[in-house]
Predict the structure.
Amino acid sequence: MVNNKIQTAEENLIHVYNRFPVVLDHGKGMYLYDADGKEYLDFAAGIAVCGLGYGNEELNNALKAQIDKLCHTSNLFYHESCGEAAKELNRVSGMDRVFFTNSGTEANEGALKAARKYAYTKKTGRYEFIAMENSFHGRSFGAVSVTGHDSYREPFEPVLPGVKFARFNDLDSVKALVSDKTCAIILEPLQGEGGINLATQEFMEGIRKICDDNDILMICDEVQCGMARTGTMFAWQGFGVKPDIITMAKAIGNGIPVGAFAMTEKVAEYSLQPGDHGATYGGNPLACTAVKKVIEIFEREDIVGHVNKVGPYLAKRLDELVEEADCVTERRGKGLMQGLALSRPAGEVISRAVEEGLLVIQAEGNVLRFVPPLIVEEKHIDEMIEKLKRALA
Ligand SMILES: *Cc1c(COP(=O)(O)O)cnc(C)c1O
């Protein structure tokens, strides 16, 4: 039987996304094109995913070649690309052991389990997590349990017990929650969804010290702020404060669904063992080919150096808007992960930007979020500012 209520294919989907009224068709470099050929300058990068922009020929060719050879083996079989991608990811992230997932949510889910297993093996009796207000770690039960937005959690309660929320950048609020039951502290060094809030140096160092003093694990969620976005390969390196576990996804595959959590040897020794965790697709040859190639291109093209060159230019141009436009109250962020706080509804500005051919997205707290492909150049930033000014007018 045909359901007559379903008029377009989209109505077959569960309606959970507030989508842009644009149907994208293809992309090249910094630009996306809709089905009618209209051009959009992209400052969203598929939510900080497409660091290398669109249509990178070298990456596409590597993926095509791997598709023709082998896409999937399951983890019952080792594939060379998996170990190689892990080796590269460890080298650039400073960790020692990697587990590949299919998303950022799954990476956080695995990190929480890894921390629990560490405590279990050491028989510390520690099981609680301390997370931050305004954090975002994903939508599965574990990940949503440590996400600091009531509206994301409440409809699904009871969620994971033993999670406490501290105020971001308020070390005393963290200390007040630490107990002999605390297993791990999870935070984003630069909060994305929560409004582009950068951790202070003191906060990162303070968390590290609390963890060191109490055998608590420090988990950094670098799903959004990792992969060169803040001007170091991973955001923790910008602070020189090394976590015990980091979670990654988004830009590590440039659009091929892949995530990972990684840990130091100190954690790995007591954490996940054969049989403790798994993922059928996790780290399959296609995903790992993407990770390997993305890291190779990032290093050869010195994307980190490029972010440090254009990031300050983006910040400067956005600072000018804070001065010029009454409705722009503050800029925050680091590198190519920037936000503008507005005193008028960000949604309206975003809609007008789309009409102008500019894609920007929102973050919590009425913030315009700028997370362009990392290949963005000054001329694109100038073009973006012109379009944004018209959208703000
Ligand atoms: C996007 C995001 C996630 C969730 O990643 P998915 O791939 O959507 O599951 C987790 N943490 C942070 C910081 C993110 O930005």
